[in-house]
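Sequence of Formyl transferase N-terminal domain-containing protein (Microbotryum lychnidis-dioicae).
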Amino acid sequence: MAESLNLASIALPPTPLLKAYKPPTSFLDPTSSTPSLLDPSRTLLLTASFGHLIPTTLLSLFPPLNTLNVHPSLLPKYRGAAPIQWAIVHGEQSTGVSVQELSRGKFDQGRLLGQKHVSMPPLADFKTLEPILAREGANLLVEVLRNLEKAQANAVAQTGVVSHASKIVRDHARIVWDRMGSDELKRLQRGIGHRFPLWTTLKAFPSNPNERSQPPKTIQLQLLDNPAFSVPDSVPIAELTSLPPGSTAFDPRTKTLFVRCAAGVVGVEKVKGAGGKWVGSGEWWNGVGRKLGTMRME
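Predicted 3D structure, token representation.
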């Protein structure tokens, strides 16, 4: 946008170089003995979902409310690295975007210059929600910049309940069958499955007592998440409701593997073993599952 308006602009360097970064000389006052901006009141530092702490030495060159960040949540909710993902996982009905002051030495604690509420689309996942919030965030930033003096004059401190959106790591994708219900597992998949597929540990108990049991295996799962699909009422699936969480049953009619969870039953669309490729749960059952005997996921 700056280029289209013939405004001087420059992008921040990669993170490893950020600590020692100084603006180019064209932005600095040549008469000053210390680094100072040539025109601080008309110079802005803008970031969007910037997951790294900007050095205070750089921020201090700017008037505080000239350093702005677009954050994809309604601050102070979901401060941190993964607000979109955790809003989906927690089943929020609405979310939003914020334009905030870049706080010195802290993440996502600056004054607010603008916010906009966004309704959560049904069955939203990260890949569908992220571009929606990116567009709304860009529009909000443009609105703030068009009325910058007014937005700065009306900037307010963050108030309300604070929550944090920690960086997503692989362990967040581990299924805990005795604590997670079917709805929660589907939201977890929608929120972080693009980055880390859900995974679990598979234990097998051979039907033949003379056979040696195999060591537990880690497998990845893609769960069925189609509202038009209903859990079948076949005998093996109906029996799951009386078994402990993690118990499994295969439905030959739909060729689908089902797993008992803390509340309800989930269908498995695809399975991936260590070093393998994704296969349908019916194909996996015919090739691997039926040979394992009784199975439990933990």
